[in-house]
Amino acid sequence: xxxxxxxxxxxxxxxxxxxxxxxxxxxxxVHLLTLLFTFAIMAQAWNFIGGFTGYTDFGAVVxxxxxxxxxxxxxxxxxxPFGLAWVAGALICLVFATxxxxxxxxxxxxxxxxxxxxxxxxxREVIANWPSLTGGGTGISLPIYHFPNSVFYYIMLALLALxxxxxxxxxxERLGFGLRAIREDEQGAQVLGVxxxxxxxxxxxxxxxxIGLVGGAYAYWITxxxxxxxxxxxxxxxxxxxxxxxxxxxxxxxxxxxAILTFISEILNAYVPNAHLTVLGAIIVLVVLFIPHGVIEYxxxxxRLSFRAIGxxxxxxxx
Amino acid sequence: xxxxxFVIDGLLLGGVYAAVGIGFALVWGIMNVVNLAHGALxxxxxxxxxxxxxxxxxxxxxxxxISMAVLFVLGWLIQRVLINQVIRAPLLVTFLMTFGLxxxxxxxxxxxxSADNRSVQSFYSGARWEFAGITxxxxxxxxxxIALALAAAMQLFLTRTTIGNAIQATxxxxxxxxxxGIRIGRVYALTFALGAAAAGAAGSLISLNYAISPxxxxxxxxxxxxxxxxxxxxxxxxxxxxxxxxxVVQSLSQAFIGPAYQNAIAFGLLVLVLLLRPSGIxxxxx
Amino acid sequence: MRTFLGLAGxxxxxxxxxxxxxxAASSPPASSPAASPSAAGSAAAKPAASAAASAPASAKPAxxxxxxxxxxxxxxxxxxxxxxLTGDNNNEGKLTQQGYDLWAEVSNSKGGVNVGGKHxxxxxxxxxxxxxxxxxxxxxxxxxxxxxxxxxxxxxxxAPTFAASAISEKAKMLMVDSNxxxxxxxxxxxxxxxxxxxxxxxxxxxxxDAWLAxxxxxxxxxxxxxxxxxxxxxxxxxxxxxxxxxxxxxxDQSYPPDTKDLSSSLNxxxxxxxxxxxxxxxxxxxxxxxxxxxxxxxxxxxxxxSVGPSTPEFSNALGKDAQGIFSGVQWVPxxxxxxxxxxxxxxxxxxxxxxxxxxxxxxxxxxAAAGLALQLAIEKAGTLDMDKVRDTLAALSVDxxxxxxxxxxxxxxxxxxxxxxxxQGADNKQVPVWPDTAxxxxxxxxxxx
Lengths: 319, 286, 449
Fold this sequence. Notes:
Number of strands of chain B: 2
Structural class of chain B: mainly alpha
Strand order of the largest sheet of chain B: 1-2
Strand order of the largest sheet of chain A: 1-2
Distance between the termini of chain A: 36 Å
Shape of chain A: globular
Radius of gyration of chain B: 19 Å
Oligomer: heterotrimer
Largest interface: A-C, 54 and 61 residues
Largest sheet of chain A: 2 strands, antiparallel
Number of domains of chain A: 1
Radius of gyration of chain A: 20 Å
Largest sheet of chain B: 2 strands, antiparallel
Number of strands of chain A: 2
Order of helices and strands of chain A: HHHHHHEHHHHEHHHHHH
Number of helices of chain A: 16
Strand content of chain B: under 5%
């Protein structure tokens, strides 16, 4: 890096701006950013197992729903305050993720993906059909909070900062290198002495923990959850898209992807409400054509958006 | 109660699932492309059938070759123009691209076709066969038969024709295939086009059994996933078996435990199969 | 690192600009482009549509100035609503929006909303919630804090209304619910949510009443319900009512909302000897149920569905197989109700046909009724003060084209009865058959085998 001092100052200013934002901005912006942070954290969490380790997880939303339901049910049935229920819910997700990981991470590639997808559907169905415990298909209504919405903004902001800092640290330490080694050549890594299963399960459990934390906070924020909404496979797809758009396997790629996708969606919804999905789809297709490896890598490579550069990129990936 | 009835119900239901899986299996198995737009293509096939029925009174079953042809052309174009550009990039890149495509196709359909639910009818729509206390609705039976025929035709094409062999060769070893002079670009275009055509056929069958709307296809993409893996990744017969098994499991669960649990049990079974036999029912053990 | 910071800064800038832009554009507000060009709300239909079309060229969204309506207005009343223009509920969302727009248009043509002598023009602002509850919540927040709407109308369906009303309640802004019928929305002790529609518990009990008055009486009831809040509520109420009336329930199961097959259930129902069937779900599963009833050859004396028969698509899809089906509806064009602004049910029907070239059904009527209730409360309160309007609305008791509008302590219009219709005749006309006060035709009973 050329001027680390300046970078740190800019980073500090950005963080200060984000902290001060709710005081100066409308409720809408706060709400939008909170939603953005929610998805960014999940995309970052997915990145542990999907980006760094190379195991595409198609069932990530299961922790979102579990975190939400665990938090909500603990609050409703045992009258725990939010803070405790939230942490307990996240721990439940951690345990569940560890168990799932031990079971499913023996599968490779596509099979792991499908197994996680099947599990997320299965868990959704179990929750949807256990009315005495979970309220069944009707969903549950969480106790209403009596503090300003911006509290959730700060919760999500803090989680986001935490996960990015964590990812940054991890990528420079053993775990990060181990995961990337697994992604590049799992058997090779194993031969070199990397405890492959332990690393994979760690990555998966961490992703489950963070997504569970997000799910619990989200449930309390939105006040009402039902199985169809919080176990929606569309959420998994969305966070994968965000991670890949920004750059899977990079430190902050998922955040970048989340920001781009969220803001473009909002802008399109305002300008072309009748066709915003068409335009969004077209933008995504174009982005993939020109920057297939994600925005972060594209910026890192400092390639210019000239026809020749695009042609060179395409030449690498077309047949 | 006739247990046989429930199994038959399941097979009939499985016919739709199998039809949905066949095109997906082809594209995934040969090109290693996870086509998130598969459901959208199915939906388009259904609409081809619907508009032919509405505007020209064409019988839905007879419209299948047409919807297959239309989707074939569309699939060819999509592959040549878009997917081919990123075919050798990691899997998630094509995933992202097909996601964008899916958004576009569904939204365009919504704008042009409107959100209304559509339905097609035929003279055999309510008809059924009954014997020995078993009821078989004709429409479901035709769906199953066509799904079987589709699978058989695809399989024969892949194994008995030169082009089919070229496709298989490409999936096995890309460089070797290129060395023997196979035009990879053409092969991929053909494969994707065939997959789209199969999706079109599936869509036509679906329009006969259920009401359709622009969002109707979305449901089938995860199903295609599941069905393919259950039966054995990447093979046509695998998709067929996977679809039938999935249908039977759902039907039996519905019958003996209740309709509420059919999905829980079916997906639970899927995970179990993956743990015990990851390559799927028909797949070779790795 | 630097690139990341650059992006972070850029996105913040974008957010700030996005935040700054819209408030400026919201005065005077233009009605947002609706799902179809024909559904633009205010009298300024054409200018609003072309303003929206040229919006991308200008920097501000939806910044076209609204052409003033024919009359002179003393101000504008900006009302916002999330609507499902895309996603699973886009059909019903569009219908709800049509109701809102029609009310605004008719009301504006009669001088708008009269607040203590001043006439306010109704302006409606919509965003698409994509049938997703988190979008509904975000949009509600946007309407409140960005577009500065003065009042809110609900999105379509229970889950989005749940989420949207949580936001409106926190902001202490009134939201009138048109189409979220689940009781649970109103069990949260909210003060600022009111629903004009009959609650879910009433959807099928009227059908059971109608059946039990027939000869031969049905003896065995089978029920299926989709596994979602609204459908389960409807089914439970119907089940309890049947038991209360000594109608034996021989089958009662719920199915996953996206199920593709109900044949096992139907075969079991056949084996159990049920002679009447109630289905509580949504349009696609109602269609599936009917198709499979026919293809499996299960016959009933009567079939009732909570959702489906009142939509034209149901008839189009099933043809003569739809004949004789019962359904509970919130409103029918033939009912003998009348009231202010929109006149009688027949007047409303005519206005709807003129504007949209189609017969109205109840989802749009719900929407118009919600707008109407809001208007009447504001006019009666004589002010735009939120709490005064809220209290007036809570105490409101008025007859309208929609029927009687009055709210219980939770905010639900509990006393409004559902009208039960039966599809009759070759064109599947929706004939109100129950209760007697609304019936225009006799019940066909039993269904031909």
